[in-house]
């Protein structure tokens, strides 16, 4: 917010802040969160919990990410090191919450790092109660994913914001890079895929800009005269 944003859609649509007003916040039932954690621990799946008070990683989440990164780059150690360094800020963010007490009744979303246990088996176990998103972060492993509250997605959240502001779909522009952004694309009038985005997302986009690392969002905004430099 400090850089000038006047609102946030977080947790894949589970948390919405417009100005100073929280207009939507839907968390996971604590009983289900604990059940998922137990399942992950039994099956060697690492994870992190996302809440408004922080990101809380499992005991070996960072080791597992290093393992899945190496597999993602085809065991090329040089590429793995470069991607690990690029991702270091994220590990540091999670590490900053180590030791803090976790409120298991205030969890917005769970992401899991996994390249061994079949995603579809996880989806069959939890998909009746929760939204399941496959491989939203590719280097988290081919069987990785996110688990979110049923009915929470970016499309629903965007519609709630537009209604709150008395705006329409044609007033909304989106930027995305993963398949869980497809719902967001359906809710907005103009959609921009990042250069590092998935092929499916690029096919659904009105425009493909450069990658996140190459300042693709800023370049697209400048191109359309939303701000000047």
UniProtKB/TrEMBL annotation:
InterPro entries: HAD-like_sf, HAD-SF_hydro_IIB, HAD_sf
GO molecular function terms listed in the Swiss-Prot or TrEMBL record: magnesium ion binding; phosphatase activity
Extent of the signal sequence: none
Gene3D superfamilies referenced in this protein's UniProt entry, alphabetically: 3.30.1240.10, HAD superfamily/HAD-like (3.40.50.1000)
GO cellular component terms given for this protein: cytosol
NCBIfam families listed in its UniProt record: HAD-SF-IIB
Protein name (database record): Uncharacterized protein
Source species of the chain: Pseudolactococcus plantarum
């Amino acid at each position: 917010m400090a850089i000038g944003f006047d609102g946030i859609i977080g947790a894949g649509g589970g948390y919405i802040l417009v100005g100073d007003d929280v207009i939507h916040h839907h968390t996971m039932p604590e009983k289900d969160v604990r059940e998922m954690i137990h399942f992950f621990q039994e099956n060697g799946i690492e994870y992190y919990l996302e809440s408004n008070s922080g990101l809380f990683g499992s005991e070996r989440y960072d080791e597992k990410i290093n393992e899945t990164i190496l597999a993602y780059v085809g065991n090329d150690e040089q590429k793995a090191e470069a991607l690990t360094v690029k991702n270091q800020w994220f590990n540091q963010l999670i590490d900053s919450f180590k030791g803090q007490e976790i409120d298991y009744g205030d969890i917005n979303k769970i992401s899991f790092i996994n390249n061994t246990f079949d995603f579809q088996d996880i989806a069959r176990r939890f998909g009746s109660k929760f939204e399941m998103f496959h491989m939203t972060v590719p280097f988290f492993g081919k069987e990785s994913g996110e688990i979110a509250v049923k009915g929470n997605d970016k499309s629903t959240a965007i519609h709630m914001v537009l209604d709150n502001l008395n705006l329409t779909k044609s007033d909304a522009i989106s930027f995305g890079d993963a398949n869980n952004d497809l719902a967001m694309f359906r809710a907005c009038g103009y959609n921009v895929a990042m250069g590092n985005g998935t092929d499916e997302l690029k096919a659904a986009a009105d425009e493909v800009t450069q990658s996140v690392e190459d300042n693709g969002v800023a370049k697209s905004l400048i191109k359309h005269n939303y701000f000047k430099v």
